[in-house]
Specification:
Length: 697
């Protein structure tokens, strides 16, 4: 009996021990599960806080951008016609500087925006503040650092939080046409195995892209209802890999745009080339954007000559605030101050035509030839009411507005050019380097249009010379098609609808010209217009009267009839006085669209044998055409039609300083290009930081 009681006690003890072990294990498991649930809830809570903080930053970014846009007072479609209040204050001064280390609720120097003190988002209590503002006066961008802290209570646990910091760039955007190395408002053709564009190419119409040409950027084509085309793109072309692009110098300079990710700093570079490590068929195809639904509006250069012109008013305001602005100088002499109202290269103001004194056809035109020791010095926008003939070295930052054509008769070279060595940004140093805008109300003409044979011009491919080489691109579909013109362009030979042929004589009927006059847009007509024929004038060597002579013998002489103003051969008796006919500078109303109002010798005597480099932003209402050699364009080509014939190689290096999101963007009061909508805010940097690093107000 005693033995049995011992076994019963051992069993009870074992059971109690086992129950204790199980209880301990169960408590451990339950504790672990509870800890895991709480840890998971905390992690989830932090994720929610991070999302809530970022969401409120996005809302704040939108609010700041909207407030900034409302602070601007500007016209959207006038090139250089901005009215931003005081011309001495940049529109970006709305982003007032912050010197305090405390994150603030309010931003904006004019009509400021104040963010909410506290908001609730996804059960989080969120504060959003402005941590810092970076803006240099005169630049077209501002960096704003947003700081957001979100906090929430985890059910059954502690409070959790997340603090997010995002640096955002706000930029006032020029018209998107300037975001391209090559932009054509109608039919785009980018062809040739030696042709390279380091920048985007775009057409408001179909784009003929050669399979051999190289585009280190995106390619766009948009539907064009006026031309009845869908916006197709032929081929994907070629492109360079990262290593090839970084190591290559394109053309006669090292001015190809930098890479999208700066090789030296690693910072995101808005507008840079997104070069693939290895180029694949997919890479080439992915940068093609055909059949875009919306075309980009290309603004017209309007009236620049009348006293009421927005361009003249804008340039005058800049000059009044700073007398060095809106000027062209050379060798210490001021050639232009705001508006050129002087004689042309002939040096005369009046000529005699059919017995009457009239304004010389080249009045208001100018010749600009810069040398390395005496470059053309430009500062801000200036206005030339008639033609501009230009070549040589240029320095400074500014824009030449021409009331008609700009004739580029030789290389245009920056004295202090920007450089993107290794395709890396150079920051503020490039922002101050030379930049020239050439804005023509008519056309931009390259080379010697007077040259009709190959003698001395070996780069012409045909025996007929300049015009024969490009006539197809100036007069035939699909290269040139009919299009509507700005009313003010009737003063330079363009009717309401242009017929599609630049090789014919300029002509505007009475009805179209009357519209221009009634709108006050014909205050100045370069070269003059013959109201009887509707055609426009240029200076040519014409038949005119010489000094009276006495015949030394009887015979037939070439004489000038002072009554009919014509040349005639008539019999003259010995010792009789007669008026000989000679060639004199006069006016001829048969001007072609590609010709200058000046004497042709003003072009031929100055034109280089070939053009190999053009530094500048080229923009006009109508066409860019001509014959060049192996050539590099450093800037941008923007036009309605294009007809350029090149030899061997053509390089188009887009100037990234035209992009308003770039840290190197040039002040628009300098280059005066068209404005459009604003850039969406872009992220420069993002980070999540520990609590307590930022002090909130």
């Amino acid at each position: 009996m005693k033995r049995g009681n011992t076994r019963s006690g051992v069993a009870l003890l074992s059971t109690l021990v086992m129950m204790g072990v199980v209880t301990i294990l169960l408590a451990g498991v339950m504790g672990y599960v509870s800890w895991t649930v709480r840890a998971s809830a905390i992690a989830t809570g932090r994720d929610i806080c991070r999302l809530a903080a970022q969401s409120e930053i996005e809302i704040a970014k939108h609010a700041v951008n909207e407030a900034f846009i409302l602070s601007l007072e500007r016209y959207g479609h006038i090139i250089g016609g901005d009215t931003i209040g005081s011309t001495t204050v940049s529109s970006f001064d709305w982003f007032e500087a912050y010197s305090s280390t405390v994150a603030k609720r309010t931003i904006g120097a004019k009509n400021p925006l104040t963010l909410d003190d506290v908001v609730t988002n996804m059960d989080c209590v969120v504060k959003v503040r402005i941590g810092a503002v970076e803006h240099t006066v005169g630049t077209q961008w501002a960096n704003v650092t947003f700081v957001a802290r979100a906090e929430r209570h985890v059910p059954g646990g502690p409070a959790v939080s997340s603090t997010v910091v995002e640096k955002v760039r706000f930029a006032q955007q020029r018209s998107k046409v300037f975001n391209n190395a090559y932009f054509v408002n109608n039919y785009g053709w980018f062809q040739g195995s030696g042709c390279t564009a380091n920048g985007d190419v775009r057409a408001n119409g179909n784009m003929s892209l050669d399979s051999n040409c190289k585009v280190n950027g995106k390619v766009y084509a948009a539907k064009n209802d006026e031309l009845h085309v869908p916006g197709n793109i032929t081929s994907t072309g070629q492109m360079d890999s990262y290593s090839t692009y970084r190591s290559t110098t394109y053309g006669s300079s090292n001015m190809a745009r930098p890479l999208s990710s700066d090789p030296l700093s690693g910072e995101l570079n808005a507008g840079g080339y997104e070069a693939p490590q290895t180029v694949t068929a997919a890479d080439r195809a992915n940068r093609i954007h055909a059949n875009e639904d919306l075309a980009i509006e290309m603004p017209y250069i309007g009236d620049i000559s009348s006293n009421e012109s927005a361009y003249r008013e804008w340039a005058q305001q800049l000059h009044d605030a700073d007398p060095s602005m809106s000027t062209i100088k050379q060798g210490g002499k001021t050639l232009v101050s705001v508006y050129y109202d002087g004689v042309g290269p002939s040096g005369v103001e009046k000529i005699t035509h059919n017995g009457q004194e009239i304004t010389a056809p080249d009045y208001g035109a100018i010749v600009l030839e810069g040398t390395e020791s005496h470059p053309i010095e430009i500062n801000g926008p200036v206005i030339i009411p008639s033609d501009v003939i230009i070549k040589g070295y240029v320095t400074g930052q500014g824009t030449i507005y021409s009331g008609r054509n700009i004739h580029i008769v030789g290389n245009i070279t920056y004295k202090n050019p920007p450089q993107w060595n290794g395709k890396s940004t150079e920051g503020a140093s490039n922002a101050t380097k030379d930049m020239l805008g050439l804005m023509a109300k008519g056309n931009i003409v390259l080379g010697d249009y007077t040259q009709q044979t190959t003698s001395g011009y070996g780069y012409y491919s045909s025996s007929s010379g300049w015009l024969s080489d490009i006539k197809t691109y100036l007069s035939q579909e699909p290269y040139v098609q009919k299009y509507k013109c700005d009313t003010s362009d009737a003063a330079i030979g363009y009717p309401e609808t242009f017929g599609g042929n630049y090789t014919v004589a300029e002509y505007v009927n009475s009805a179209d010209f009357a519209k221009c006059e009634s709108a006050g847009l014909a205050a100045f007509v370069p070269g003059g217009r013959d109201s009887m024929t509707g055609k426009f004038g240029k200076q040519r060597m014409v038949d005119g009267p010489g000094e009276q002579k006495k015949a030394t013998r009887s015979g037939t002489y070439e004489t000038y009839n002072t009554t009919t103003h014509t040349k005639e051969n008539r019999y003259v008796s010995k010792n009789e006085y007669y008026t000989p006919c000679i060639q004199v500078p006069g006016v001829s109303y048969d001007r072609k669209y590609y010709e200058s109002v000046c004497l042709d010798t003003e072009i031929s005597s100055r034109c280089s044998s070939t053009i190999t480099r053009v530094d500048g932003v080229l923009y006009n209402n109508h066409g860019i055409f001509g014959v060049i050699g192996k050539c590099t364009f450093n800037g941008a080509l923007v036009c309605r039609n294009e007809g350029i014939r090149y030899s061997s190689n053509l390089y188009l290096n887009w100037d990234i300083r035209l992009y308003s999101g770039s840290s190197e963007t040039v002040d628009n009061d300098k280059v005066g290009l068209a404005k459009a909508s604003d850039n969406p805010p872009t992220t420069v940097a993002w980070a999540e930081i520990p609590d307590g690093m930022v002090v909130f107000d």
